[in-house]
UniProtKB/TrEMBL annotation:
Keywords: Hydrolase, Metal-binding, Metalloprotease, Protease, Signal, Zinc. Its EC number is 3.4.11.2. It comes from Streptomyces azureus. It is an enzyme of class 3 (hydrolase). GO terms for biological process: proteolysis. Residues 1-24 form the signal peptide. Its cofactor is Zn(2+). It comes from the Bacteria. Residues 50-219 form the Aminopeptidase N-like N-terminal domain. Pfam families: Peptidase_M1 (PF01433), Peptidase_M1_N (PF17900). This is Aminopeptidase N. Residues 311-455 form the Peptidase M1 membrane alanine aminopeptidase domain. InterPro entries: Aminopeptidase_N-like_N, Aminopeptidase_N-like_N_sf, Peptidase_M1, Peptidase_M1_aminopeptidases, Peptidase_M1_dom, Peptidase_M4/M1_CTD_sf. One of its GO terms (molecular function) is alanyl aminopeptidase activity.
Length: 510
């Protein structure tokens, strides 16, 4: 937290400012956070980024990364200085061509003071030259950079960017990306979007990737290592590129049997969510030891451990559903996580129905029946879970239960119209749970405040009358476990995260 101390004389200075005409509004430092109560220091104020151009060189043997990041942005206020979120060692910063002074503060703040203050609405080009060993850097006591036997991977939620590029690290500021990575010959560099080209010279190969649609910083990914790459095209014509570490051992077959179905699953999801929002698809499995997957845009990250018991198509469904719910429409604040996780989990329920392994209704009944009223599960409010419970199992399971309650309340016609219409209404933008409620009311023509309050915001199990009204209670309360349950639950990873700071990062299909 940055506390400003009011010095004597500040009052006199403030009085003087009042005499200055409004046209010469004073320049002030951009806020060190974007204003998200869950993560007060994440993101920054005073500017908006439209594009990141990252030119990187990475040496897998030493885990050394050097880079030049060019940020194309615009000021949203008069700025005397501004911050980027970043952890590596900075050598030089230029703002609109001129050298700028910089210093670090807080856990991950790079404070930049341009040579001359910037007026509101000024186009901004920030060039940052840097180097460092990402695995040696920590913020809040952890790292989001995964070292692998043959390289490294940036993938985590809600943060991973600061370990490999300077950014405005919050989903509210989405941008397009060009990521160009130089790695030793025989090593691959995987990122989001389409592979534009590769070129080799003097023992090094450059990989050029492009994401041409707005992308949140936590959805940008970089993986360097020795991969087997497969390519193909979906039935609807989207190019697919998948990558598998060459050292996945016994998990290799199950990983491929799952992720090679990416195109088929994405095509199937368009039936529920509307056209696929991007021009690239795929997934990658590096040799990491984590237990979670992440919906990194166009190319989700999967950890090998998730295929320990064989293929898991339900997991692929979850991460691909996020391409619409979470990636295309991103949250406004991290408290809006239900729109990401409740719907990605609900997509798994729809897949279960498609596979004949339990209907969405049966899964909802099972979630409701299998958690007694005194289970702490019901104390988590999916509509605003708090940072410590942001990836709690309740956000997923109670979150999907709320989706089924909504479906039963408004009927299938309105419900499926909402599932498709939502990603189009807020395409490539941001939206909140409140926005979703308003949209659902608009489409269905029904007041839904009470329903949303009961299923998303009450820290208690909805009682029998509410459950009956939402058609998710079974007489007698004993509900058989649907056949798909174990596969769906396997996407949770391990749920030992209560109370551990950022513990939830480690073990979820985000």
């Amino acid at each position: 937290m940055h506390r400003r101390i009011i010095a004597p004389g500040a009052l006199a200075a403030a009085v003087l400012l009042l005499a200055i005409p409004a046209s010469a509004a004073p320049h002030s430092p951009g806020a060190p956070g974007i204003g998200d109560p869950y993560y007060p220091a994440y993101g920054n104020g005073g500017y908006d980024v439209s594009h990141y151009d990252l030119r990187l060189k990475y040496q897998p043997v030493t885990d050394e990364l050097e880079g030049t990041a060019t940020l194309v942005a615009r000021t949203t206020q008069g700025l005397s200085s501004f911050n980027l979120d970043f952890l590596l060692d900075v050598g030089e910063v230029r703002v609109n061509g001129a050298k700028a002074s910089f210093r670090t503060s807080g856990e991950h703040e790079l404070e930049i003071t341009p040579k001359t203050p910037l007026a509101k609405g000024t186009p901004l080009t920030v060039v940052v030259r840097y180097r460092g060993v990402p695995s040696s850097k920590k913020a809040y006591g952890f790292t989001s950079w995964h070292r692998t036997p043959d390289g490294g991977v940036a993938a985590n939620e809600p943060e991973a960017a600061a370990w490999w590029f300077p950014s405005n690290d919050h989903p509210l500021d989405k941008a397009t990306y060009d990521v160009s990575v130089l790695v030793p010959d025989g090593t691959q560099a995987i990122s989001n979007g389409t592979l534009q080209s590769t070129s080799s010279r003097l023992g090094w190969t450059r990989w050029n990737w492009r994401s041409d649609k707005p992308q949140a910083t936590y959805l940008a990914t970089l993986a360097v290592g020795k991969f087997d790459i497969t390519t193909g095209t979906t039935e609807s014509g989207i190019p697919v590129l998948n990558a598998y570490s060459k050292d996945l051992g016994g998990h290799a077959g199950a990983a491929r049997a799952s992720i090679e179905r990416t195109g088929e699953i994405a095509d199937w999801l368009t039936g529920y969510f509307g056209p696929y929002p991007y021009n690239a698809l795929g997934g990658y499995v590096p040799n990491t030891t984590t237990g979670y997957a992440l919906e990194t845009q166009t190319r989700p990250y999967y950890s090998p451990r998730q295929f320990a018991n064989g293929s898991n198509i339900s997991l692929v469904v979850h991460e691909l559903a996020h391409q619409w719910y979470g990636d295309d429409v991103s949250l406004k604040r991290w408290k809006d996580i239900w729109i990401n996780e409740g719907f990605a989990r609900y997509a798994q329920w729809l897949w279960s129905e498609h596979e004949g392994e339990g209907t969405a209704q049966e899964l909802a009944d099972y979630v409701y029946a299998s958690h007694p009223a005194d289970d702490p599960f019901w104390t988590v409010k999916p509509g605003d879970p708090g940072p410590e419970n942001q990836f709690d199992i309740a956000v997923y399971d109670r979150g999907a239960l709320a989706v089924q309650a909504l479906r039963n309340e408004i009927g299938d016609e309105a419900f499926f119209a909402i599932l498709k219409g939502w990603p189009q209404k807020y395409a490539h933008g941001n939206a909140s749970v409140a926005d979703f409620q308003r949209y659902a009311e608009e489409v269905s023509g029904k007041p839904l405040a009470a329903l949303f309050d009961t299923w998303l915001f009450q820290p208690s199990k909805p009682g029998a009358p509410a459950a009956r009204a939402a058609a998710v209670a079974k007489a007698g309360g004993v509900v058989a476990q649907p056949k798909s349950w174990k596969k769906i639950a396997a996407t949770n990873g391990v749920h030992e995260h209560a109370g551990a700071e950022h513990g939830s990062h480690g073990e979820h299909a985000h």
